[in-house]
């Protein structure tokens, strides 16, 4: 009889008891591991948001530090910041060399070439030369307006060849800048975008709208707040700052809101 009972295996009641006990144990274990798992997921989501915001801020700060002096301008209620991007620069020849030679940059009449003192910066098609930029708006000494900006006619140097141009004022430090064009960062429709390769405009758009034409790329999504503040340096205005506030929001699968808000300042040299 005992041998027959062993051959029959477990009964239905025994199976139900095992399932019930296993369920109780699983429920108890779930209570203990639920919070750590949720905490890990929340931490991973916050880290992702922080990384996205930090990457965008670093990219903007790097570009702003290379901005043409006195070209930064904020518009659209602080939602957009625009500047002219530089790729290099140097000093132009203002006087002939000891032998009476050298190609000087003439400020009394239109000139189409000049020598650089020292290493010649890298030149590429589409680059332009700017001398002594003082303002970011208006028609005078403003690279956006173009009175102190001339297009290259050749990328071979020396000398640096430009479209015949009479620059309005010489630079006290004999500096020139190589510019690639205007660039704008702006927040539109919950996204932070970078705009480039669009035409120069003497004055920024009248409202919170991006520049027309050109290319754009998304730097960050789910932007809850975006603000740019430009502060020019006092008196000499040699150093200015652009303060950037960037907030990125994310809603978890459970409906909770995760928010990362970051602040950064980028220094801008305004020595023309």
Terminal CA distance reads 106 Å
Count of discrete structural domains: 1
**Structural class label:** alpha+beta
Mean pLDDT value: 87
Shape assignment: elongated
Description:
The protein has helices spanning 2-7, 12-65; strands at residues 73-75, 80-92, 111-114, 116-117, 128-130, 149-151, 160-165, 175-188, 191-196, 215-220, 223-231, 239-251, 257-269. With 272 residues, the protein is an alpha+beta fold. It has one domain. The protein is elongated, with a radius of gyration of 31 Å. The N and C termini lie far apart (106 Å).
Concise account of the structure shown:
This protein has helices at 2-7, 12-65; strands at residues 73-75, 80-92, 111-114, 116-117, 128-130, 149-151, 160-165, 175-188, 191-196, 215-220, 223-231, 239-251, 257-269. It is 22% helix and 35% strand.
Secondary-structure map with pairings?
Layout: H1 2-7, H2 12-65, E1 73-75, E2 80-92, E3 111-114, E4 116-117, E5 128-130, E6 149-151, E7 160-165, E8 175-188, E9 191-196, E10 215-220, E11 223-231, E12 239-251, E13 257-269
Highlighted features:
three-stranded antiparallel β-sheet; alpha+beta; elongated; eight-stranded antiparallel β-sheet; 272 residues
